[in-house]
Write a structure and sequence with these properties.
Strand order of the largest sheet: 5-6-7-4-8
Strand content: 25-35%
Number of helices: 4
Distance between the termini: 27 Å
Number of strands: 8
Largest sheet: 5 strands, antiparallel
Oligomer: single chain
Order of helices and strands: HEEEHEHEEEHE
Shape: globular
Length: 210
Amino acid sequence: FGFKMPTHWSACLAPDSGYLRVQACLDALRREAEAHGARLNHHTRVRELVCGERLGLLLDDGRVVAADRLVIAAGAWADTLLAPTLGAMGPRRPTLRVLRRVLAWTRPDEPVRAHLRALPVWAAFTPAGFIYGFPDNDEGISGFKLACHEARDLNLRFMQEAVDPETVELRVEARDLAPLERFIADHRPDAGPITDTATCLYTHTSNGDF
């Protein structure tokens, strides 16, 4: 697929692999939920879980929404929201750490774009870390997308520092892009320069189970 690899590296192709188009998936789930009677409250913050005789959610405006069941999918805010409930588990409480990650998109020359659009989803376990990416596409941001899932380079130890989702630095700095630019230079020079970036948050478990 055009990656430049050292001769001692191994490669594995999984023809049945793929990736989810996240926004399209969320839109489909929302439509299905609403068709089955769900009521969505956008831009409504949950202050805490109510776990007394009746389950419910305490919202930021003071309202309590009663429920028979609660399904929590709070992403980077899961640890804060679940802390009072999980605290009752004592030392067995699972540890959730929020890590900051930077996504990048490159703009290859037009003759190369068709080739990069035909790529599968890919991942590379390099000495610098676990780098992964997606074929060139026009979903949200146009281009060839890549990111560093986990860093091994000691100069990238800052990537393992937990962050607060309320105050996380969203500005992308040169050190964020260093492992990605190195990967491009060494293994995918035809991908072109990085032209767009975004910051995302990982909710990381102690055993790495996604």
